[in-house]
Fold these 4 entries.
Entry 1:
Amino acid sequence: MEGMLRVRFDYAQRQTKDYSHLFRQKSRLELIRLAFYQICVEFTYAAETALASPIILSNGLSHTFMTMIWAFSPTLGFVFAPMIATLSDQTRSRWGRRRPVLLALGTAVVCGLMIMPHGKRLGLWLGDEDVPVEQMSGFRW
């Protein structure tokens, strides 16, 4: 491990810009902060996994549609992740490049998790009809 860090450090010193600060030892506070970020990500995934399936099924969708909804998220990530990364790379803010994008995406995730349990009421408010699952017609698997 030490040899690999030495090679990376030597390579960074040969560059025209100074990247040596990236390879320094992290303080305890920095490690706690990084662990906190990872805990937040894991908490979001756990909440999504625990809440999404029962809510989707309680709204009357079949298991087939539920699995399609689960496949929708990684598909969107595959399409939009490069776009968001490019946007983040081009962002110039007093908060830095990553923080504004992370704040916006984090806020969107929290709002989505708060709205998700109220999906049926939101659909009715937007004009959808309250039809029992047994009486639904159309495309169903």
Entry 2:
Amino acid sequence: MIYSNQELLHKFDKSLHYICFVVFLNKKVKVSHQQQTRFAYRMSKGNASLAYLHPKTKEGANRPHMHILIGLREQDVTPYIENVFSLFEANNQKQRFENLDSENVQTNLRDWRGMFLYISNEWNARQAEWRFMRPHCERDKCVTAT
């Protein structure tokens, strides 16, 4: 089912605190859609999330990378941020992605709606090869990063 940006935005839980990060795909390893989905799911730890694979442009200007937006309950924000790099390492043991750079992690995301719309606009503009969305935190399964 295709949703407009406003419909997607309306589905997302506005009471959550959002962080965003970008991971670059390792050039030496082919990462399947299923592996990308699993990675985004594991990085979200059951929290609300949105991810989009930004493929390499025809001109080669961009390296393939993935934008991941994660919504966390207030009590889960600090533990998640403290453990995001170890969580990344645990989910990247096969080196499918380049190391996570602290410059690519936005923890104080004031305009999460802007990032959300940027990602969803990419879906519409590029007819995304791949995307992942969970609009609400799985309340019973929400756990902090360990």
Entry 3:
Amino acid sequence: MSPAPNMHSKDGYICLEENHRQSEERNNARDIKEEGQTYVGKVRYFAQLAVEDKQNPSHKHWKGAAVVQLYSPPDPDFLTLSSYMLASCKLLEEEFTHVVNIKQIVGAVAMIPHQPTLASGEEELRYFMVEKPSMDIATFLGNKEDKGQDEDGMNFPAE
């Protein structure tokens, strides 16, 4: 599937395709946080949209947006078998494409293709996540963060 060179929104704005080359060996993806939930998606386009100012309707301001195709949550069997080291996901169909505010993008990861052989003997195209050591995607893997202070105020997780 190759994205169209541009896309028109309902309001007549044009979203231009991001002009960059991606390695055939990996997909660049972004962590997106929405309503406290973290998702991983492949950015198809970046755009700037003219949005009407609520306080002064005759003025417009620019808002950054991204058209993002989501990846599935990590496969729980791969997570368990790999001691939570292999977050293996599928790139979801085009109907799982969303427009998000670029301020919702909280990080970047690489999604490396791999084709594991399933129990049925079929190979399936999946992607495993590689992140920078400083990135925190624990919320994507389902871990809950304790927001409270611990005894010494250092906020280290309990053992």
Entry 4:
Amino acid sequence: MKGRKSVPYVNIPNNLPKPQSVSKVSVAAPENYRADLKPANVREEDDKCDKNVSTPSVIRINNAKDKNENLLTYIQALSFEDIWASCKQSNNLFEDVNFPATNSSIFCNCTSKVTVQWQRPSEITKKFNLKPELFASNTDTTLALGNFGDKWVLNAALSLVEDTEGLFTILPRGQSFRDEWYMGAFHFNFFRNGTWEKVTIDDRLPTIDGKLNFIHSFTPNEFWASLLEKAYAKFHGSYEAMKSCSFEETLHHLTGGTVITHNMADLDTTSLDDIIFQSIECNCKILCSIMADGRKWNELLSNGFVAERMYAILDIRGIKLTRDDIVKPVTLVKLKSTDGLRLEWSGAWNSHSPEWRNIRSGDKEKLELTIDNHSETWIEIHDFYKIFTSLYVCYPTANPSTFGSKMLNKVQEFEGQWLNGVTAGGRPTCMDSFWVNPQFEVKVQNSPKGGAFFIVDLIQNDNRLIRHKARINNVVGIALYQVVLNANLAKGTYIVIPSTYDPNQEGEFILRLVYDEENNIEIRQLGDVINVSYDMFNCMPNTTYDLRNKFLELSGEEMKINAFQLATLFCELKLKDFQADVEICKSLLLLSRHTSGYCDFNDFLLIFGILSLLMEIFTSTGKSLNKKITGYELVDLCEKLGHIVPEKFLMESLWKFTDEETRLSCGNFIRFVCFFTSTFSEERNSA
């Protein structure tokens, strides 16, 4: 960032003493720390009343093996402001106990024998006689990967160099190494699961032989990138866990945007032209790269580009060249090397290319066909198409107001989950279960010429901290009937179906749908409609049993029976070798017109009829009464009864009635239907 000034800092009095050491606090209960570290000038009654008084935090725990879990929870709950205020109060630098300066913060497997020294920026720059800065003044920002740095984090970070607002979204303004502000603590923001999460770190960085071996700036006293990488590593649990991220994931975490990847092999130059133009209109971040394909990462190619380095697309221009009365249309793409290094494109339309002689200098200015510095170049779209292999478009969906046009100005988010036996149906080829996946209805009421542009973004809730313990995310996908993931929709109704690859894989997800509000698009989740059929309340037993006499034998003069007597009565009736136990009878009594846990003879006839109907419905699956059904079959049987069971109710209630394999016996099927029916039967009771 050439000529960039230092980040603005918080105006704090200059007469505060400079930190000299790291505080050492013995382990105790959180409330003891609250008392011991309370500012001396705050009275007990003031502390209770004044919410603006910050409670100082624990800066360091001496014996890591004896850490009290309650204390750790207390520390994690502290905000950056609390930590900073505590450090300022105690005049000590911050040490992060939640992301310690040990190999456990670097490797998933802490048995690694790599010797790492953790140093603060002031210790690293001491040998250069320089003071550390977040952003070095009057220099270009050029970053090195180091021996262990992550190339996707490097590329994503470089893409933010010219995006000042984007960079200061993840690295909030006001932080610096100035003596009056610096306390060894910095905070960053990363986007996950639909929201920005704050990550606070200390500034101790891993070095080997005194040198930074992860991402760092070529300018020895510039540290924003190294600190960003450390915060991102903490965000995932360790430096190693961070490496499991794809470039798309990393860019999403750093921008909050929806990232769509296009493989050049799947496009033609016309569609490529449309995608770039449309993306620029939407104020998207557009990046492209060349697959290494057997080459080394960062290898300089003969055409002047570098393998797997990210290049930003800044502009696209269509011009017409006339020669000998022949008009030749040419489409030019403006590229910029994100690392700020010289771009040595050797083909047509580079800065020294003879093609520029066909355009007068005045016309170049009018057509904005200029190059601002040595890291930029123009390239003809056909050459671009042949050379580059991947195109990344990042739509700023975390903040729709930043869109450059009205083409995309509305974002709707839905949270959902795949639940084993209920809503985890797997991919479309799983014909027996795919239909049970969560479904979202999209109605396009008004479609302009060419269709309504629409983006579907499926995000599985991030389990990277769990993955730190050797668990991986499920493979997920989207089935969008009649359209593709990123499409122009004609007027009509569509169904979006998020799914995992295999059935019965559990997980949570966020579905983000992005569109133009003017197209009058309505979106709702299917399965949240409740319908209870009352036809089964009209069924009466068709039997030769002498029900009245048997009922009277048990009920006596009161002419009513409870759940225990009802179970005895059903036992005597020997219903198709099915035993309705007391728990089943209690559930059946929920359908009685009485709420006292008893039923009279008319209610008994109703309950007997319902029980017979449910047993018949259960056996319609082809299974005997002593077998079990799956959660998928439960939904199907409920629909046969005329019940539409909402997905939320299923996920919240089904576990009460299923075994470890999410299966239900006939008895538990009956109990579930009774529970659902009684829960949503206010309409029947009020009729």
